[in-house]
Amino acid sequence: xxxxxxxxxxxxxxxxxxxxxxxxxxxxxxxxxxxxxxxxxxxxxxxxxxxxxxxxxxxxxxxxxxxxxxxxxxxxxxxxxxxxxxxxxxxxxxxxxxxxxxxxxxxxxxxxxxxxxxxxxxxxxxxxxxxxxxxxxxxxxxxxxxxxxxxxxxxxxxxxxxxxxxxxxxxxxxxxxxxxxxxxxxxxxxxxxxxxxxxxxxxxxxxxxxxxxxxxxxxxxxxxxxxxxxxxxx
Length: 234
Description:
This protein is an all-alpha fold. It has helices spanning 3-11, 16-43, 51-57, 62-90, 95-132, 136-154, 156-178, 186-201, 207-233.
């Protein structure tokens, strides 16, 4: 019996169904991220803060932004089974670290859905209402509402948790992967470490760090998905 097979069986012989669910989730997340990249490029990224600026920016772009929002919300939900499958695969390597990493993923999903994409949805809805407004009073009210959503998205707190929570989780998982043998490759572990580090430093706001983090996270998720699929077939 190979070392790899012994390691996988020692971890959880009854959890292979979760490996398969996690694999599908990871692969779909990776594909969704790859789809989102050109959509972001098409709409020209995110504009400066300010409700009126957002409303002007979103004119003619709401359809693409709804697609970005829908894909992003879908991937947030998929991170739950992915995190659980990674916990099952790595808990015997370092259970406490994986508990912390899983908690960070859960926190990311909760806050991203409750704050980030809720406010993006508000801006998209307000843009349609603003375009249909028939007088200046209505337009001013919609601009005021857009100012609130824009201020939330521009806040340092929102930027911090929307990037750092997931990055810290991936960084911890990367460290745990380095300590195991026969489950995940060292390449996957190093990709996780790099994605986590670039995610954390990207809170400085440098665009190049944000892009590198997004690319590394996408590649890491695809590597993880492929390996989980293989584990589910053992």
